[in-house]
Amino acid sequence: MADLCRGRHLVLLWVLATLVTISSAMPPPNPIKCDQTDCQLSNSYGIWGDRKICHAPKIVYPTTEEELRQELANANKNNLKVKVVTRFSHTIPKLACPGTGDAAVFISTEKYDSTINVDVEKRTATADGGVGLRKFIDTIEKAGLSLVAAPYWEGVTVAGVISTGAHGSSWWGKGGAVHDHVIGLSLIVPANEADGYAKIIKLIPQNPLFNAAKVSLGLLGIISKVTFQVEPAFKRSITYNFTNDSDIEDEFMEHTRKNEFGDIQWYPSRHTAVYRYDNRVPLNTSGDGVNDFLGFQSNLILLSKSVRATGIILSND
């Protein structure tokens, strides 16, 4: 029986290795699908929690901040409900859905992603709201700078990542949420006719609306520009420790104090805790590892089924 189980494991591992070798990474499909009369929005999970379609009759693609203002002004003037969507839609609840009915419009920031201004001396970086997180990180790294906090998935925009409260893992410094490191933003809000039905307001930390605007879930307006406080470039050194979870209640506070980006994964059914010792190290430290966790990659259905089958076999052994 043991030989049979080992044989199954070897076959599944061979399938996984083969699929990883022959398949190329591809991003998820565009969440917006339009025909001549309607546009439908899906999310990265394929379907919304309520199993109902999210749609609007129209979608627009502004490329500049002024075009973005004009589109919101037009919607306000015509009493249309508005929701902003991006190249990827990574949300379980319908945060990006304008509701039911035809009096609605999607505003996509997919093509509003051209500007990233880096000030090395002040250690700041300002980007268009539609700039993807990976593009932003790559750009500031070329200037010798790093964004301290980031979520595990990079398929988000700089506006989306802060407005939804996305985060990494840290209690150090300003904190582990990306919005903790925002020091300025521009917000496009509805206005009266005299102000052209929409206007741009600039917010800094001293403004009483600043914290609300950063994590607004899109309810206060459209975030058009985001300015981050960044730091000199660094690498991170990561070590995992799989251990018994008997002392997890006593150890997790100390773990967060000792490790800047520390993380704990807890598996109660297996009485196991996985402690991640994660700290910054100098940029010249050897090694250039990447997080190749399959859960955050585009995979073939057969690969997902193989992973699940492997888990079932291992849990039954």
TrEMBL record:
Alphabetized SUPFAM superfamilies for the sequence: FAD-binding/transporter-associated domain-like
Keywords: Ascorbate biosynthesis, Oxidoreductase, Signal
Broad enzyme group: oxidoreductase
Domain of life: Eukaryota
Listed pathway(s): Cofactor biosynthesis; L-ascorbate biosynthesis
One GO process term, biological-process aspect: L-ascorbic acid biosynthetic process
Catalytic activities: L-gulono-1,4-lactone + O2 = L-ascorbate + H2O2 + H(+)
Reported cofactor(s): FAD
Signal peptide stretch: 1-25
Domain (FAD-binding PCMH-type) ranges: 52-233
Transmembrane portions of the chain: none
Pfam family of the protein (one): FAD_binding_4
Entries under InterPro entries matching the protein: FAD-bd_PCMH, FAD-bd_PCMH-like_sf, FAD-bd_PCMH_sub2, FAD-linked_Oxidoreductases_BP, GULO_Plant, Oxid_FAD_bind_N
Cell division keyword on record: no
Record bears the keyword Signal: yes
Family membership noted in the UniProt record: Belongs to the oxygen-dependent FAD-linked oxidoreductase family.
PANTHER family linked: GULONOLACTONE OXIDASE, L-GULONOLACTONE OXIDASE 3
Protein name: L-gulonolactone oxidase
Organism: Nicotiana tabacum (Common tobacco)
Gene: LOC107777550
